[in-house]
Design a protein that fits this description.
Oligomer: single chain
Structural class: mainly alpha
Number of helices: 4
Number of strands: 0
Helix content: over 70%
């Protein structure tokens, strides 16, 4: 039986945080790798297609800042668990 003041196992917590960070980084990589395909598919220049990546980065940035604020208001663990 666990004691009430016993610390949680750090490995599952570290794994969950690493997975969340990897997901955000992977999304950026996918958007960057997609640029040549976007330029060919939509017959646009690379600079035009870069606006798509910029819009994606701005949306992710707003989501991260908003999630941080929600974490400040309601607790970081509760926000992380709720997704």
């Amino acid at each position: 039986m666990k004691k009430p003041n016993e610390a949680r196992a750090p490995l599952p917590i570290l794994t969950a945080l690493a997975a969340a960070t990897l997901t955000a980084s992977l999304g950026l990589s996918v958007a960057s790798v997609l640029l040549p395909t976007l330029t060919r598919s939509f017959d646009v220049t690379v600079s035009d297609a870069q606006w798509v990546v910029l819009a994606y980065l701005m949306a992710v940035t707003v989501a991260i800042v908003s999630a941080g604020r929600l974490g400040d208001l309601f607790g970081h663990r509760r926000v992380m668990v709720s997704g």
